[in-house]
Amino acid sequence: MTASTDPIDWTEQLPLQLSWHWENHVRPGLDGLTDEEYFWEPVDGCWSVRPRAEARTEVVGGAGDLVAEFAYPEPVPAPVTTIAWRLAHLRVGVFGQRNTSHFGRDPIDYATAVYAGDAATALAELDEEYARWIKGVGELGLEGLARPVGPAEGPWAEHPYAELILHINREAIHHGAEILLLRDLYRHR
Q: Which end of the chain is less congested by CB atoms within 10 angstroms, N or C?
């Protein structure tokens, strides 16, 4: 194989790393997700999204009737989380907060989010956040990829957008694979 002399198009490759995996593996693997799977707890002590009055942790996030369970600091080992919790994490903490900080989304965080009470709504909300993220990343251009992300990213403020994109790609691929594994376990329980 001969090495290409063409420069790498990072404006294409960085979003493609996530979009290929997401659109060919993760998102098709979520088709048909039922509400029973969405809330399924494979082991005792799972963190989930549940009615506020039924929350099992002292720290919860959510502005609606449903809350996501958390703890600070996170216990070691961290509890297993349900598909509902993981979809909420992807929607709010991975894509939503970054879309707010960098791509014009209305503010959202774990405390102010309204969490979905069913799988179809959760997937629709996640699809919206993913689409906004991919669109925003795709519009950065080479200069944008090199630009510092700014104060929204705290101690990483001086790091370039390319690093943030790689981090979000890792997070989304990692959590997407976990969710698909939970679906496999649910089907074979």
A: N
Mean pLDDT over 68-75 rounds to 93
Dihedral of CA 166/172/178/183: which sign?
A: negative
Nearest to 113 by CA among 63, 172, 170: 63
Examine the pLDDT at 173 and tell me if it is beyond 90. Answer: yes
Q: Sheet containing 59-61: give its strands across.
A: 49-51, 66-70, 59-61
Question: Can you give the pLDDT at residue 3?
Answer: 73
User: Domains in the chain and their CATH numbers?
Assistant: 10-43+78-187 (1.20.120)
Q: Which residue has the tokens 């009470």?
A: 117
- Per-residue model confidence (pLDDT) at position 1: 65
Cβ atoms 93, 133 nearer than 8 A: no
Return phi, psi of residue 70, to 5°.
-145, 175
